[in-house]
Design brief:
The structure is a homodimer. The first copy, chain A, is α+β, with helices and mostly antiparallel strands. The first copy, chain A, has twelve helices and 18 strands. Chain A has two domains: about 200 residues, CV3147-like domain (CV3147-like fold); about 140 residues, CV3147-like (Beta Barrel). Chain A has a seven-stranded antiparallel sheet with strand order 16-15-14-13-12-18-17. In chain A, strands 3, 4, 7, 8, 9 and 10 form a six-stranded mixed sheet that branches. Chain A has a three-stranded mixed sheet with strand order 1-2-5. In chain A, a hairpin with a 2-residue loop joins strand 12 and strand 13. In chain A, helix 1 runs antiparallel to helix 2 and helix 1 packs across helix 9. Chain A starts with a strand and ends with a helix. In chain A, about 55% of the residues are buried. Chains A and B meet through strand 8 and helix 7 of A and strand 8 and helix 7 of B. Chains A, B: InterPro entries: S-Me-THD-like_C (IPR048350), S-Me-THD_C_sf (IPR024071), S-Me-THD_N (IPR010318), S-Me-THD_N_sf (IPR027479). Chains A, B: This is DUF917 domain-containing protein.
Chain lengths: ~375, ~375
């Protein structure tokens, strides 16, 4: 148990951008919401997963929609609170704590704003260990937690509650309402007991993102290489270094989809790669078709100078970046996990190979 | 107060097809559902609006979606019951009766299936006096009744409850869920007290459709002209007689939209008209651009031989029909009514002129 204040939020937001793997929404807007709530209501208590009583009720909160939308359609700050309190009324039970739905991107911050405003603790865990584009893609699902009752609220004051036959149907229907609401909503769902949190969440991920964010900050202050710092703390691997030479992006069906191409610099000169994304980066391959990494491992583009992550919606021609890959949580490497978020789910006809194995076999090439 | 059995249902369904003004869904599927429920659970008690106690709770039921969908995606029969009982649980109050949302088309029948199954009375009234494509287009809205809490259920078992900031937002969000659910859902909404029913509903419309249906049946038995019988009972006017020579129709955004063209026969030989529709027929004009009728008046194509209404989704090349227009209820002829369902709402740059006036001024031409 520890207190999270403004300084911690800054580090968590920087690390969350990395764990957003290109998507998850720019944490900047969420960071402002969280800081504002903490300044108004006080610091947030963060609990380790093991500190949550087994029978306590925990409810994740998050934004649903395409990250591109959020740049122009700013939340009014009440949507997430509305969703939370409507769910509470429906359950007819006190909610003990909230927990990030996804630790990557904007959604790392929303739960802090909610926790500060409602004066409740937050749990140091999440359902992704990164960001993913669809709401059934959480380790809570793998652990048998139902997504419904699920509430989405928009900034106009509309509230919708779903009870569905599967977590995939929750995605389909809630996405439709989100698109009809203008492209983004706030959500409360996957109501869990403390025991379920212990069984299904990815533990300590908020602290992990904070460590990554802190490493970037310290590297800047000490004028050392921030990318090296990120790789060290996250356990990631460098895949490529280059300049963005082409970018294709469209917001479609509640997602931002597209691809970016990069040409190599320094030791990667003469080579080029392509990254494809649906909100998040999904697959990176060379011009020759060699696959360097795929989801569920985390593919991230870091700014060469600052070490900060560049999101898919801000990536633009001329950006100089280092592409890294961080191993995903072991929960995603099970049969069910790969079925839910592996490359085949996203339409790529390739098997998932853990990044450590890919690196090892490429090392063997030399 | 009277009992509605299988024979009455047959007549009501035939009349409801006329009052569907081309849309509202083919009553055939709904008729089978209603007859099946009556055979299983017994006849339904129909109350006059004045027989409803002022403080009793009345909830309309209806299908939402494009009529074309229903031909292939048959309801499983439980969606409407699910929607009704979820709403009841949410309200925490007993529901005294149901009432048709729209007396036209399929939606004339659904409430009978629900009433029979749940053993509750039905009220002889509705919110349209016909069929309209969007759910805010009810006289309940004009009378200040809120559409929410609004529940839609699909045949897969998904249930969604909306609380919106306006009845138009209910239309937008519930339509999005309906499309995502495959194009049709069953709905319970516009919870009212008996006093509100008295103030806002269109009274006696079920009996009116029954009278029209009975007139068609009797004309057939007596071998007299069924179209004349419909005109007499409904107070409608003949606009045109012709053959369908062109039809354009697409299912799009939860609606079936399009237009049909007809060339005249008999006394209309040499003339031609065009009818445009969004689920329901909205406007009919001659080839020269003279407007013969617009919504909210009821534009209906009747089969020349049988007098039965031809719906927009079954209309096809070669159909021989008589186009008639029935005056709409006076509630739609108010400023608010015309704003909600007049030709300008549907995108036509013309003023609404009541059909009686149009007929009168055309009579003056001679």
């Amino acid at each position: 148990m520890r207190k999270i204040g403004v300084k911690e939020i800054e580090d968590i937001a920087a690390g969350a951008a990395v764990y957003g793997t290109g998507g998850g929404g720019d944490p900047y807007v969420g960071k402002l919401m969280a800081i504002d709530a903490i300044k108004t209501h006080g610091e947030v208590t963060m609990l380790d997963v093991d500190e949550v009583p087994d029978d306590a009720i925990v409810v994740p909160t998050n934004m649903m929609g395409a990250p591109t939308i959020l740049i122009e359609k700013i939340p009014n700050g009440k949507e997430a609170i509305n969703a939370f309190s409507l769910l509470k009324d429906y359950l007819g039970k006190e909610i003990f704590a909230t927990i990030p739905f996804e630790a990557g991107g904007l959604n790392s911050m929303i739960p802090f704003a909610v926790a500060a405003t409602l004066g409740m603790p937050i749990v140091d865990g999440d359902g992704m260990g990164r960001a993913f584009p669809e709401i059934q893609m959480v380790t809570f699902s793998l652990g048998g937690v139902k997504s419904t009752p699920l509430v989405v609220c928009d900034e106009k004051g509309n509230a919708t509650m779903f009870n569905t036959v599967s977590n995939k149907w929750s995605e389909t229907l809630a996405r439709a309402v989100t698109v009809a609401s203008g492209g983004s909503t706030m959500m409360a769902s996957y109501t869990m007991t403390g025991s379920q949190v212990k069984k299904t969440s990815i533990r300590g991920i908020v602290t992990k993102t904070e460590e990554v964010g802190r490493a970037i900050r310290i590297a800047k202050n000490k004028n050392t290489n921030p990318v090296d710092a990120v790789l060290k703390v996250s356990g990631g691997f460098e895949l490529f270094k280059g300049k963005v030479c082409d970018i294709l992006r469209k917001t479609d069906g509640g997602f931002v989809r597209g691809e970016s191409k990069m040409t190599g610099i320094d030791e990667y000169k003469g080579k080029s790669i392509k990254i494809e994304f649906q909100n998040e980066n999904l697959i990176v391959q060379t011009n020759e078709g060699e696959i360097l990494a795929t989801a569920p491992d985390l593919i991230v583009v870091l700014d060469i100078e600052t070490g900060h992550a560049i999101t898919t919606e801000t990536l633009r021609y001329g950006n100089r970046g280092i592409v890294i890959c961080i191993p995903c949580d072991e929960k995603w490497r099970t049969k069910d996990g790969i079925k839910t978020v592996g490359p085949r789910y996203f339409g790529y006809d390739v098997d998932y190979v853990p990044i450590e194995q890919r690196i090892k076999s490429r090392m063997g090439e030399f």
